[in-house]
């Protein structure tokens, strides 16, 4: 491609609303432009990168027997009503009406549509297993679109759905998809970590997130340094600590704590360690009050609490609700003598208490007394209050051992680019996707679904690979692998050497850009760095007189000189992405 004829509108400054590195660099490099909140145009340079990701992912899906399909983005309400998601999906689902007042949504995902297709077209056990995938535009009316294409409203996703005769086959196939994802992200040249996203009660974990590791990532990844354990911080398991040494139970005693609503303040006031405190937080779980307790030196993890409570909706109690439930302000609530609560039916009920595992057997602890400016000390679990259940409620810390092998863990930041999920019969049951088994008995299919945010991968690759000058594309994702900069654009010898090399590289299949714009070399070098082309070749009268060109890798090495007669071979070798890993059995 000749840059003089190619639309790469680079910018010196990023638009002021670009709120992370990749959003800034993608706009500065002329890859994307913003049209509305979370809605972008992909310009030629940006789209080339999308296609690179897409191609790698497609190859890996095909290798595990995936069949590519194209599903509609506009989907009828009726299908979404069958699974109940028309109601529960909420405002992220963009709903639209056609001219006949028919109701539709813009697909945020496609379980309903694919299950509908499969229930109509697949009847026999002989046709299973089957996996279908697509690269489809998705629309999610995100409450806070941000970070450019990373959390957009319109984005490109590879979504895949598999259908199986039984659970064990779904499990076997899940493993294949997991391997295919590993290969795909490895081939993209990214550093990544698959992490457990949900620990199934039986048979281990059946949901994984694939995280691209980058300091700027939104998610915290807990990874074991010795074994393969990795989890999202939301999920990372904490084991119960060793039981504390037994203590003589003390008398329950009130202490005056004027305006001291935090553990730190009261701990200092009483000269006691925060680990002796019961940190109390009130929630409304599906409209019913819930008290969560963690140790004073621990942090409550709301997703864990939500799972432990089995609640569809979990909201922090408002100040008003604190007064209504505990009879006091935030900061003075506690589990001892908790007032009974009047439910909407007018009945007096006790407030449910869930406590973290680390509070089992706590002796002589401190907590709020459900009265302003008052705490209680000498609290003994079991004697002074009764937890309805104990569960893992707290966030892991770097000091926690790996829950699998007991080794030390590391905390890193990551960006979720893929998600694999064993669905079971959630959709096939409600939509009646069944098949006839060898005995001619009707059975419900077992499903899995597997997503990769293709456009998010592009942004994540930049978050992981950039410097002050711009993007540093891994070869496999680079929009072009070589950029040739002829220094003296008007010099015949320079122009012809640059053009020859350009043609020969394309003939060898090396995607090459030639920056033939009448700009100063410095400006063109800056742009080459900004758009992140892995190999830069400079053709100038200075080196040509020695029969040489200058060559520099974007990843920082010093420029080197190359003899013209070997340049083609060397550039060809350097521009090859990493070979595909071996084909799955
Ligand atoms: P998140 O927790 O980031 O909202 P999610 O759980 O909603 O993600 P999935 O429904 O599993 O995401 O979607 C599959 C993949 O699609 C994600 O792993 C991510 O890479 C991508 N994705 C999800 N939401 C967006 C978005 N708003 N913009 C760009 N990509 C997205
Ligand atoms: Mg989401």
Descriptive overview:
This protein is of the alpha+beta class and about 575 residues long. Helices cover about 25% and strands about 30% of the residues. The strands form nine sheets. Strands 3, 7, 8, 9, 10, 11, 12, 23 and 26 form a nine-stranded mixed beta sheet that branches. A hairpin with a 5-residue loop joins strand 20 and strand 21. The longest helix has 21 residues. The chain is globular. The site of adenosine-5'-triphosphate (ATP) has 15 residues, from strand 8, strand 23, strand 26 and helix 11.
Largest sheet: 9 strands, mixed
Any ligands, ions or cofactors bound here, and which? Answer: adenosine-5'-triphosphate, magnesium ion
pLDDT under 50 segments (min length 5)? 199-204
Count of beta strands: 33
What fraction of the residues are assigned to beta strands by DSSP? 25-35%
- The global form is globular
Radius of gyration: 29 Å
Q: Tally the helices.
A: 15
Q: If you average the pLDDT, what whole number results? A: 93
Could you provide a short overview of the structure?
This protein is of the alpha+beta class. The protein binds adenosine-5'-triphosphate and magnesium ion. Adenosine-5'-triphosphate binds at residues 109, 140, 142, 151-152, 155, 157, 416-419, 451, 453, 455-456.
